Amino acid sequence: MPRRARVAVAGIPWHIIQRGNNRSACFYTEDDYHYYLDQLKLQSAEHGCAIHTYCLMTNHVHLLLTPERLDSASLMMKNLGQRYVQYINRTYRRSGTLWEGRFKSCLAQHEHYVLTCYRYIELNPVRAMMVSHSAEYRWSGYHHNAEGSPSKFIKPHEDYVRLGLTDEERRSAYKYLLAEALDRQHIDQVRAATNGNYVLGNERFKKEIELALGRRVTPGKGGRPRKVD
Q1: How many domains does the chain have?
Q2: Which CATH number characterizes residue 170's domain?
Q3: Residue 184 lies in a domain
Q4: Which pLDDT band, with edges at 50, 70 and 90, does 220 fall under?
Q5: Is the pTM of this model over 0.90?
Q6: Does 197 map to a domain?
Q7: Which residues, including other chains, have CB under 8 Å from residue 134's CB and lie 6 or more apart?
Q8: Per the domain annotation, does 79 fall within a domain?
Q9: Cα dist from 36 to 33, 150, 164, 202, 206, whole Å
Q10: What is the pLDDT of residues 75-127, one digit of tens each?
Q11: Could you give the CA distance from residue 151 to residue 166 in angstroms, rounded to a whole number?
Q12: Is residue 73 in a domain?
């Protein structure tokens, strides 16, 4: 059975997850994280993807980005993944794949849903009980978005920019958002949309994307179709 075509629209934020094969580790040393981030900077610039935030977990990666063109995100992820696998295989004298198939993704509606993805991504190490606060985890966009640490590639989304009139106001408002954990409903919504390659947003937004693409962008109802008499 052919796999579903990816829900892809340019100019709308994407939440992306790429997992290690069989949930195995993708990063082993600090050098690995640095190499991935260096390539993320290069590949995002080359293929026209604005990176809003990220989190590099031990065995998977989260990205929130907005692609300039329809194929921007796919080309960036393809080249980023290939270069990182080549680096890992060369460094650790291994062969074969590193990633678990193609990456997962969903489109995120502006306003509430984009900031929900920001929070989902940067709170991931806290949910995984690796740290007690996002500030304690080194490999995420939190340090730029909440603390103002310099970044070579992070570009704030307009919804983040609207949090305040100045950088200081934005960071303060953003810290306030991250101070409260996401509730289970929002976590489940983000996971279901991303793992299923659907749309994360309200019903109006989903209908707009369906009309634009000419196909369903939400999960179908299970079971057999009703018999019509």
Answers
A1: 1
A2: 3.30.70.1290
A3: yes
A4: low
A5: yes
A6: yes
A7: 122, 123, 125, 126, 140, 142, 146, 178
A8: yes
A9: 5, 17, 31, 34, 33
A10: 999 999 999 999 999 999 998 889 998 999 999 998 789 999 999 999 999 99
A11: 17
A12: yes
